[in-house]
Design a protein that fits this description.
With 126 residues, this protein is mainly beta. A five-stranded mixed β-barrel has the order 1-2-3-4-7. It has one domain: Ribosomal Protein L14, CATH 2.40.150.20.
């Protein structure tokens, strides 16, 4: 569960390392984002000479959260960090990630929500 002004780790190889969320997409009253929700963030820390620079404004999807996430079978999944994957601004395929590598485990709910490309790039699906 992340909200406005939350610092998140960017779990892909776009060059951005840490981002600050400033809007949770999905309605004017939506306050918190959970796994699979879209957020708008600003890059706070970035690697030099990469595609994404500091202060860039990007759209991303939440792929990991510290708050326990309840599954349909009643079990809970919890991660060590809050992480997002940056999405490309492609009107034909809005679920396409901007990067070609994803770091860390990804829950299977991400694949079920339509982000198959993120699931195939991930090293582990939990």
């Amino acid at each position: 569960m992340v909200q406005d002004r939350s610092l998140v780790i960017i779990a892909d190889n776009t060059g951005a390392k840490i981002g600050r969320i400033f809007k949770v997409l999905g309605g004017s009253k939506k306050r918190y984002a959970e796994i699979g929700d879209l957020v708008v963030l600003s890059v706070q820390v970035a690697e030099p000479r990469k595609t994404v620079k500091k202060k860039d404004v990007l759209t991303a999807v939440v792929v990991r959260q510290r708050k326990p996430f309840r599954r349909k079978d009643g079990s809970y999944v919890r991660f060590d960090d809050n992480a997002v994957v940056v999405l490309a601004k492609n009107p034909k395929d809005p679920f396409e990630p901007k990067a070609n590598r994803v770091f860390g485990p990804i829950p299977r709910e991400i694949v079920d929500m339509g982000y198959q490309k993120i699931g195939s790039l991930a090293p582990e699906i939990v």
